[in-house]
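Issue 218. Parser rejects a valid record. Input:
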Amino acid sequence: MNIALWIVAGVFAFGYIVGGIVKQTMPYEKYAAKTGWAEDFTPGTVRFMGVVEVLGGVGLVLPGLVSVAPILVPVAASCMALYMAGAVTERIRRGEYKELVGDLVFLAAMVFIAWGRFAVEPF
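Output the parser choked on:
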């Protein structure tokens, strides 16, 4: 179980970090044209989402790797699950049901990590 938790955390941390960096570095107009949903948010909010994703991604792996405050791993996973619940809500509101699947996968992965690190295989 420990190995599965590390693999899931690593894969999704990479996804969050890359996605967050893109949100922070790509010009807002270009990002909004590419994604569509970003048009509903201000440029500052999209940049803030990028910061949340980078910090969340780092929080999924770094505390466990360096054994400093490893309780932050399930806390980060719980926070990112709430973040993804917001993303799911936004997808439903916009009627973007194809894209909803990816958000649900991220949400399920975060719940799995939180459950696994809080209850099954804590550090």
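Fixed in the parser; the record now loads. Residues 47 and 72 are 23 Å apart (CA to CA).
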